[in-house]
Each structure stands twice: as C-alpha cells, then as structure tokens.
Amino acid sequence: MNDLKYDAPMRFGLFHAPHHNVNLDPTLAFARDLMLVEHLDRLGFDEAWIGEHHSGGFETIAAPEVFIAAAAERTKHIRLGLGVKSLPYHHPLIVAETVAQLDHMTRGRVMFGAGPGALISDAHMMGINPDQLRRRMIEAMDAIMPLLRGETVNMKTDWFELVDARLGIGLYSHPMVETAVTIMRSPAGAIAAGKYGTGLLTLGGIDDDAMVRHTENWKIFENEAADHGNVADRSKWRITMFMHLAETREQAAKEVAYGLEPYIDYTHDIVSAGGIMPRGLEDPVAWINEHQLGIIGTPDDAIAEIERVQNSLGGFGALLIFQHDWADWPATLRSHELIAEAVRPHFTGSNRMRRESYDWAAARQELHHKKLEGAVELEKKKYRERGKNKNAAE
User: Fold this and answer.
1) Of all helices (H) and strands (E), which one includes residue 11?
2) Where are the alpha helices (DSSP H) in the chain?
3) Is the Cα dihedral 252, 255, 259, 261 positive or negative?
4) pLDDT for 190-236, tens place per residue?
C-alpha cells in the first residue's frame, strides 16, 4: 500500500438501487430498505446512496428523495445520497429545490448524485430517445449547479426552460452540498464531474479490465477538472463492489443460493447493459470470485480484494457495497455486521492505537507482573509490621 496516491482512512457505504426479487412484497421491501439504513447507521457506515428507477419490477424506489426524508428521521449519523437522480426525467429547478429542502431536513446529511438514467425502459416510457440522455444530463447540470450556488439562471433548451430562476431557500450546507456524478463505461460522467468539480461515483466491476477503464476515466476526470480550474479529489472518488460475507466461504456460498440466480436473470432480462455473468452456471459463486465480479467469502477475502482494487487505482475515498438480495434478510444483516466488525477497521485504522496499546502492554507483561507481585508483598509486609507494633503496644 506504499505506492498509493491516496491512503487516508476509507469510508464505507451502500449503493442501494435497490434490487429485490419480484416475489418479495413491495410494502415489505420498502420497510426493509428503511430498516437496512437504520442498521447501517448503528454499525457506523458513513453513507448510503438511494437509486431511482421506474420499470423492470426489481428496482422498486421511484422517488429517492421521499425515501431519504423517511430514512433521515430514523437515523442519526449516516449521510444519505440521491444515488442517483436521473436528471433527463426532471425539470432542473425542481431537482435543485428538492436537494435544498432535503439539505435542511437532514441538517446537511444529504448528498446529490447525478446521472443520465440506467434503464432504457424508463426512458422509453417517457418518450425520450436514449441517445439524448447524456446530453440532457449535461444540460440539467448546467442549470442545477449554479442554482445550488445561489445564482439566478436563465436558460432554454428543447426540453426545459428557466426564466429568472433561483432557489426559494438557500442550502443548509456551506458552501455547497456534496455532489457526485456516476460513471460506468462512457466518459460522459467523468467529463461532467471534471467540469463541475464534483466527486466521481464509479460503477462497472472490479476485474482487471474494469481497473483499466476506471483508471482511464479517472485521467479524463483529472484533465477535465484541470481545464475548468477544479481539483480532482480522490477522497471524493467512490467505488462500488458486489459483496456478501459470512464466517466461512462455504457458509457465504450457501447463503447466496437464496437469491443469486434471480438476480442473474434480472441482469439478462431487464438491465440495458446486459447480463453480468452467464446463466445456468454449475457454480456461479466460484465464477464470481474467479472472474473478480464480486466478493463472496470471508472478511479476509474482502480485505484482500479491496486492497487489490485500492492498489490498482492508486487509492479512493469510499467503498460502496452494491446492495442486493442474494442472501436472505438475516444473512444480509450479518454480512454488513462482518464488514463493520472486521473489514472496515482494517481500512480506517480505527484499531491502530488499540493494537499499539495492546502490544506495548504485552511486551512489558513480565515487568508489570513483577511490579504487581512486589506491590502485593509490600502490603503484606506492612500488615505484618502493623501486627507486631500492635502486640508490642499491648
């Protein structure tokens, strides 16, 4: 880890689309999603990003801002991100006003994530040609960012118009609410993030080929940021990973048998980019681990893979667990507990001083034992002398 360009304590969070098999009652799914964020808040996770989707049946949250408002009332510390708001579907003034309101309601815990929209089926229902999505995202950002900075915006495009537009209330956060732009394969996200000086939220795998793409996109981001007088800050670079942990590899593999196959089907049937892995594999868990698609195993396995990604990229600020229902509810909660118990401290250094204190005391144990025995013997001697003096006085 000595070659890292950035090695500050890593933040841990959740990237929550969410993904739920269509056999799960939607009312229960919403309730569990809120319970999960509460669970992560208690465990000390730093942030949770909530997605927006409108079709396909698997990703059930259509209004992440509504979910965040509810989650904020149930949590104390965890930061909550619109992860992401699909900008081509919304008028920029409404998006900016929503972010500002949430910033106040969460006392500065909200984060603004921007993207073009992940599902082509969503765009289809709104009559939007997919080749217009990224253009619309950039145009929306051109309006939203100055609005959030408190500026007045006049702007007209073929899909929205702003006339003397400004926020009704300013932000709670100063000088700006934290913002990130998503990126997968296209450089559009890196270009936008560099232009506006935001963070980068990277999706799209952790295999060696993905590391090359992520590095190339980071370089694009750095160049665009420099061209616009902004700084490409690695602390604001977020990397997503699939992960499910248990006490043993065998237990982890057994647990994901619950929902892994339906998820693989979903990526083939609904996700516009196509399947994440072949259907019908004899051992999909082994395939995932061998092809570096994700981490299904133990905390030690997770630490090794995260370090590999960290070293490949030169360091980043936050790791987001790409949430799914591969395992059942109790096993999912336990997986996050294991991350908090055994993985997160390795990358935050939270136990460094405890370990140093333990090692310091252990190295002096023999000396401390002798001092303790000496102190006990001294008290015994004092007691004996006290008895002699008492008898002499009588």
Assistant:
1) strand 11-16
2) 26-43, 64-74, 92-105, 120-125, 133-148, 188-196, 208-227, 249-256, 260-269, 284-290, 299-313, 329-338, 344-348, 352-363, 365-393
3) positive
4) 999 999 999 999 998 999 999 999 999 999 999 999 999 999 999 99
Place of tokens 């964020």: 37
Q: Shortest CA distance to 156 belongs to which of 86, 91, 252?
A: 91
Quick: pLDDT tens for 6-40: 999 999 999 999 999 999 999 999 999 999 999 99
In 10 A of CB 351, how many CB atoms?
12
Q: Using CA atoms, how far apart are residues 242 and 205, in angstroms rounded to an integer?
A: 8
Q: Could you tell me whether strands 79-86 and 110-115 are parallel, antiparallel, or unpaired per DSSP bridges?
A: parallel
Taking CA atoms, 80 is separated from 41, 108, 173, 184, 224, in Å, by 10, 9, 14, 21, 27
d(CA 151, CA 92): 13
Cα-to-chain-centroid distance, residue 124: 29
Question: How far apart, in whole angstroms, are the C-alpha atoms of residue 74 and residue 190?
Answer: 34
Q: What single-letter DSSP state applies at residue 340?
A: I
**CA–CA dist 150, 173 (Å, integer):** 12
Per-residue confidence at 329, pLDDT binned at 50, 70, 90? very high
Question: Whose CA is closest to 113, among 18, 181, 187, 13?
Answer: 181
In this predicted structure, the answer to whether residue 333 has a pLDDT above a threshold of 50 is yes
Structure token pair of residue 291: 């092809």
With beta carbons less than 8 A apart as the criterion, state whether 64 and 101 touch. Answer: no
The number of CA neighbours under 13 Å toward the Cβ of 19 is 23
CA distances from 21 to 37, 282, 284 (A): 19, 21, 18
**Within 10 Å of residue 192's Cβ, how many Cβ atoms?**
27
Within 13 Å and on the Cβ side, how many CA atoms surround 68? Answer: 35
Cα(37)–Cα(19) distance, integer angstroms:
14
Four-residue CA torsion sign, 4, 6, 9, 14: negative
Q: What is the mean pLDDT of the chain?
A: 96
Contact 41, 76 (CB under 8 A): yes
Q: How many CB atoms lie within 10 A of CB 104?
A: 14
CB 158 within 8 A of CB 164: no
Tokens for 266, please give them: 């979903």
Distance of alpha carbon 95 from the chain centroid: 22
Examine the pLDDT at 2 and tell me if it is beyond 70: no
